Amino acid sequence: MLIIFKAEHTEDEVEKVRERVLAAGCEAHIVRGLYRVTINVLGDDSKLDPEEFKSYNGVVDVIAVMNPYQLVSRDFHKDDTEIRVKDVVFGPGHFVIMAGPCAVESEEQTLRIARAVRKAGANVLRGGAYKPRSSPYNFQGMGDEGLKILKRASVETGMPIITEALDSRSLEQVYKYADIIQIGTRNMQNFSLLKEVGKLDKPVLLKRGMSATIDEWLMAAEYVMAGGNTKILLCERGIRSFDSRHTRNVVDLSAVPVVKALSHLPVVIDPSHGTGRRDSVSPMSLASVAVGASAVLIDVHDDAQRALCDGAQAITPVDFEQIVSGIRKVASALDKKIEAPR
């Protein structure tokens, strides 16, 4: 439940309500907004009577939250969340383009592609330093050296970095170098990792598990937010397909309006991993803008035939430039702003 205080409340009144919540064995998450203070009751609140709290001095209303995910729900936060990463804004009225190689293969390759996507209009540089692969024999990434390469590319181009953390050890390194921490589809329900990310102060992009329901996805985000990190980007990256011959995954575009109705967090689409096909990246990118997503995450490689990771979905810098042009047209029609980092 949500306990909402009057504008003229006192700290003693808030503390009395907090103590009552704690006495029932629940957690009291206090949120001090610009116009109001609320206590979000976390845990089994069945022993607490909403009518009781309405009688407390300073309390103006009590709202029952029916969803198991409370902090990420619109019941908790009515307005869309806005997340700023340097000069880039994720949120209402904005559309962010994140692009770069699926995997960092060398400094020369990464810098070359970073320059190309920045020139075409990308806002954020993506690139994998640690690569979770289905086969242990596939390229696993350059690790710490890959992070250093991404940082050099970021310094040169001015773009903030998004890259994936796989575990506690890599999370520590990613935190040092990246501006946005990515949690991949295979780790969506790695709850110990989600708890660690929840303690950090950097934005987190949480990819939907390949077989996860929307509720499971939002509950994973709840783990992060319950830890104190409110800067969460939800990324739809495709769910498992039964037609493996023609589609590696299915981009669930319908999930965007559904999630936006349930949650205040920005939603991102990954059309590259979502389809696994370079000829599908452009239409899915344009559709992402139309259905209300806040950003796209696109794989770009200038020699896809020799790419060490997911070459079949990578698009060329020339094609990426055309996609950005199309995104700008759709975004303009919907009054969304695309900003490049200064």
Molecular structure report:
By secondary structure, the chain is α/β, with parallel strands linked by helices. It folds into two domains: 2-63, Phospho-2-dehydro-3-deoxyheptonate aldolase, domain 1 (Alpha-Beta Plaits); 83-333, Aldolase class I (TIM Barrel). Helix content is 35%, strand content 19%. The chain has helices spanning 11-23, 50-54, 107-120, 144-157, 168-177, 191-198, 214-226, 255-262, 271-275, 278-291, 317-333, and strands at 2-5, 27-32, 37-42, 59-63, 83-85, 88-90, 96-100, 124-126, 161-164, 180-183, 204-207, 232-236, 239-240, 249-250, 267-269, 295-299. Strand 5 (83-85) and strand 6 (88-90) form a beta hairpin. Helix 3 runs parallel beside helix 11 (317-333), helix 4 runs parallel beside helix 5 and helix 6 packs across helix 7 (214-226). The longest helix is centred in the last third of the chain and has 17 residues, at 317-333. It is elongated and about 70 Å long. The termini are far apart. The mean pLDDT is 91.
Quick description:
With 342 residues, the chain is of the alpha/beta class.
Order of helices and strands: EHEEHEEEEHEHEHEHEHEEEHEHHEH
CATH architecture assignment name of the largest domain? Alpha-Beta Barrel
Q: How would a textbook summarize the main sheet?
A: 8 strands, parallel, barrel
CATH class wording of the largest domain: Alpha Beta
CA radius of gyration: 21 Å
Determine the CATH superfamily of the largest domain: Aldolase class I
**Residues in helix, %:** 25-40%
**Which structural class do you get from the secondary structure elements?**
alpha/beta
Count of strand segments: 16
Number of helices: 11
Look up the CATH topology of the largest domain: TIM Barrel
Show unreliable segments. Answer: none
